[in-house]
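stage 2 :: seqdesign
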């Protein structure tokens, strides 16, 4: 074999190995630009049975991914490296009678990426649970309050979560108003430290009737420089138009 051919044959495997190593490194480092690094809350009203959730983030159209809510069952928020199946699995287990903690633990049990997740669960019966993995960027965390669970990551600090809980617990009136106030408080306290693009609120005051209409709220701002403020404007207009108290 000529020396040049020998060198060529040795070089090809080395290039192949370097390429494999690069791909392995990429696989170990998840693309956080595709995560819903965000702040959210799920909540309930024990007096009426209503359940709700709200969320805001610095990515487009967060409302179609993070929240899963069902009247009479509960509310779930799946964020950070969002997996909508975790929220659906949790909801299925709540429907079968599991507590929030049982539903959350079972949903995460076989999840190989659980340390990349944030999951918040509240049942219509009042059980609550939350999980924050180790891999979302700081500040990350969650707080379980009275009839509310708040969570967030890539926040300016814990004060965002504390402001949300305080606003929810101290605001009188219907669940929808309390949830909206809590989301606004989180944004006012700093929210997502990367900025703001989209927001959503879902409030189920009753199960849909035969005509498909209910006194429910499902609103989204998908691409805005101030999504929570725009959501408030839409929220107030919607309640007035449909006479929702």
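stage 2 :: out
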């Amino acid at each position: 074999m000529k020396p040049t051919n020998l060198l060529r044959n040795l070089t090809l495997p080395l290039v192949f190995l370097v390429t494999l190593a690069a791909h392995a490194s990429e696989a170990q480092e998840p693309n956080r630009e595709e995560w819903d690094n965000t702040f959210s809350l799920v909540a309930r009203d024990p007096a009426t049975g209503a359940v709700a959730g709200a969320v805001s983030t610095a990515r487009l159209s967060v409302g179609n991914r993070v929240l899963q809510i069902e009247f009479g069952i509960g509310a779930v928020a799946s964020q950070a490296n969002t997996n909508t199946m975790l929220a659906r699995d949790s909801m299925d287990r709540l429907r079968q009678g599991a507590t929030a903690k049982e539903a959350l633990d079972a949903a995460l049990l076989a999840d190989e990426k659980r340390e990349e997740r944030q999951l918040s669960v509240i049942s219509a019966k009042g059980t609550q649970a939350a999980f924050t993995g180790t891999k979302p960027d700081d500040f990350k965390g969650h707080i379980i309050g009275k009839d509310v669970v708040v969570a967030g990551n890539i926040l300016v600090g814990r004060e965002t979560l504390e402001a949300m809980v305080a606003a929810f617990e101290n605001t009188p009136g219907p669940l929808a108003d309390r949830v909206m106030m809590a989301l606004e408080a989180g944004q006012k306290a700093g929210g997502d430290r990367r900025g703001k693009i989209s927001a959503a609120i879902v409030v189920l005051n009753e199960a849909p009737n035969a005509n498909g209409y209910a006194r429910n709220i499902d609103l989204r701002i998908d691409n805005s420089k101030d999504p929570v403020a725009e959501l408030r404007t839409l929220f107030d207009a919607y309640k007035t138009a449909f006479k929702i108290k």
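stage 3 :: structure notes
- The longest helix spans residues 3-28.
- DSSP finds six helices and ten strands in the chain.
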